[in-house]
Design a protein that fits this description.
Elements (H helix, E strand, L loop, with lengths): L1 E3 L4 E2 L12 H13 L4 E3 L8 H10 L6 E6 L1 E5 L16 E5 L3 H15 L4 E7 L9 H24 L3 E8 L2 H8 L6 E5 L13 H8 L2 E5 L12 E2 L2 E2 L2 H16 L4 H10 L4 E5 L5 H10 L6 H9 L33 E3 L19 E4 L10
Parallel strand pairs: 2-3, 3-4, 4-7, 7-8, 8-9, 9-10, 10-13, 14-15
Antiparallel strand pairs: 1-15, 5-6, 11-12
Length: about 375
């Protein structure tokens, strides 16, 4: 079984996303996470061209209690690209990524990650960046998607059946490609980055209901939309346009009127949807991580969510967190993170792929999943 806590750590920043992070600073972030009880870390070969995996592996060595996810779809070859900073990695390791989502490449990528992470097993393995956000040429995108859904999926499924990984899925930035992938496999989890936040709720229309029917949980990555919801200037890995900055300003003003830090609302909003298993903000300093750990349990009055919806800043159908209980009742602010609001619920993976009738009302904070073999879908 896998129990995902409500808060994990996205490890692209410790690999130097958009700006280099020193070895000491990265080690401090990861050490702080472990000291404060964070037990889920997400990384990828692409993050710093192996740098994030190396740093995460060093930090969690000898920690069997840690849950780890990484990704496949890019093999790392010797030699830097012409301009690694243009890819978002100004100070990476001396490699360059080569896309390959086929069976052999996925197996090779998994083995390479095991070595960089110094692990004999990876808990969650995800096909990485299989959509048009990454593959802008339509022919390339179709080819990569086809490879990922055939040979790539077959490799993941074999590793899951053999017990080498406990859960499989995809890690993407687009709602549309996640919806397409649902029909091509029996997926445990999707990591969706930046598409379910205080700024964007497109998955509510069809992706989240479809995932619920299929038994596929969501890991929310990029809850700050690349930083703009936490005081940064980036949105979707680029400078935010003026209209988006103005919208964020309106959301921030409403949060401040209720005495709530905007990043706290951003983190807690994601967790209110029952299909969401966990949220994984990134951090490049220990201070940023400490702030996230405080924000995840900051009391938020229900009136804030009502005001955001009334002002057209939040989808009126979006689930929102319940108002916190009174101080001392063991709820938000009680200092018991991460256990105070965890609900461990078993979700049976029946062949009908349906949920029990009571499921829709839950607000789970932990995801429990059995990793028993299952039949391969006809698709």
């Amino acid at each position: 079984m896998i129990d995902l806590p409500k808060l994990g750590l996205g490890c692209a920043p410790v690999g130097g996303l958009m700006d280099g992070v020193s070895p000491d600073a990265a080690a401090a972030v990861l050490a702080t996470a472990l000291e404060r009880g964070v037990r889920y870390f997400d990384t990828a070969p692409y993050y710093g061209f192996g740098l994030s995996e190396r740093r995460v592996g060093d930090a969690i060595r000898g920690r069997p209690d840690v849950i780890l996810s990484t990704k496949v779809g890019r093999l790392l070859k010797p030699g830097l690209p012409a301009d690694p900073a243009a890819l978002g990695w100004p100070a990476p390791l001396p490699f360059h990524p080569v896309y390959d989502y086929g069976y052999d490449a996925v197996m090779r990528s998994w083995e390479d990650s095991l070595q960089r992470l110094v692990r004999d097993r990876i808990d969650i393995l995800l096909l990485h960046d299989i959509g048009p956000f990454t593959h802008t040429d339509p022919d390339d995108e179709r080819r990569h998607f086809r490879d990922a859904m055939s040979g790539g999926y077959r490799a993941l499924d074999e590793l899951r059946r053999a017990g080498q990984v406990r859960a499989i899925g995809i890690g993407v930035n687009e709602v549309e490609v996640a919806a397409r992938a649902l029909d091509h496999g029996d997926w445990d989890v999707f990591l969706l980055a930046g598409r379910y936040t205080l700024l964007e709720q497109a998955p509510l229309a069809s992706l989240f209901p479809d995932c619920a029917r299929r038994g596929t949980r969501i890991i929310v990555g990029g809850p700050y939309n690349s930083g703009i919801l936490a005081g940064g200037r980036y949105w979707n890995y680029a400078e935010a346009p003026a209209d988006l900055r103005a919208r964020v300003g309106r959301i921030r003003s409403l949060c401040e009127s209720h005495g709530v830090p905007l990043p706290a609302a951003a983190l807690q909003f994601c967790l209110a949807h029952p299909v969401v298993a966990t949220v994984i903000p990134g951090a490049r300093t220990s201070l940023e991580l400490e702030q996230a750990l405080d924000w995840i349990d900051t009391p938020i009055p229900g009136a804030l969510w009502e005001d955001l919806k009334q002002d057209g800043l939040l989808d009126r159908h979006a689930p929102t967190p319940a108002a916190p209980p009174a101080t001392g009742a063991g709820g938000a602010g009680s200092g018991a993170w991460p256990h105070s609001r965890s609900v461990r619920t078993t979700f049976p993976r029946a062949s009908t792929r349906t949920r029990p009738t009571w499921w829709t009302g839950l607000r789970p904070r932990c995801w429990r999943m059995t990793s028993s073999p299952r039949s391969r879908p006809s698709t």
